[in-house]
Design a protein that fits this description.
CATH superfamily: Winged helix-like DNA-binding domain superfamily/Winged helix DNA-binding domain
Structural class: mainly alpha
Keywords: DNA-binding, Transcription, Transcription regulation
Protein name: MarR family winged helix-turn-helix transcriptional regulator
Organism: Georgenia faecalis
Number of strands: 3
Strand content: 5-15%
CATH topology: Arc Repressor Mutant, subunit A
CATH class: Mainly Alpha
Largest sheet: 3 strands, antiparallel
Number of domains: 1
Shape: globular
Pfam families: MarR
CATH architecture: Orthogonal Bundle
Helix content: 55-70%
Oligomer: single chain
Length: 148
């Protein structure tokens, strides 16, 4: 795809296009499980790390509190997670995956394996390592920016 109209901003445009395509593909692969993109990240975190405070889940999946709160509420209505007050901090909420969510685990892990396979395509191990290194550099650049 051409960067026509984006002038001297080809890197930002390329990152935007790749992220948009990746998210759309993830959504299509997750559709069978009934999850929206991002919800699988929360569930995978809960499956692997166990129950945790909502604030810790937000950090683990690199989300924001309002988005995660809405996502957890939707998953709770679907019976995939439950929330309960923290026994040690009245202000905190503990989020836990339910046994019903485990029925989705194979589908979610399969979708992510397929997403990885399609993303990598025919890239060699060396190319993959180089891309990961360069993405890490871009992430470091963007993380260092003071946000308004």
């Amino acid at each position: 795809m051409s960067d026509q109209g984006f002038g001297a901003r080809p890197m930002s445009h390329a990152v935007f296009r790749v992220a948009r395509l990746h998210k759309a593909l993830a959504g299509a692969l997750l559709r069978e499980s009934g999850l929206h993109p991002g919800q699988e990240l929360a569930l995978m975190t809960l499956w692997s790390q166990g129950p945790q405070r909502l604030v810790d889940l937000v950090e683990a999946v690199d989300s924001d509190a309002p988005s995660m709160t809405r996502s957890v509420a939707r998953m709770e209505r679907a019976g995939l997670v439950q929330r309960r007050p923290s026994p040690t901090d009245r202000r905190a909420v503990i989020v836990e995956a339910t046994p019903a969510s485990l029925e989705l685990r194979a589908k979610v892990e399969g979708a992510w394996a397929e997403l990885e396979r399609l993303t990598v395509g025919s890239l060699s191990a060396e190319q993959q390592a180089e891309i990961l290194e360069n993405l890490g550099l871009l992430e470091a650049n963007l993380s260092a920016v003071d946000r308004p």
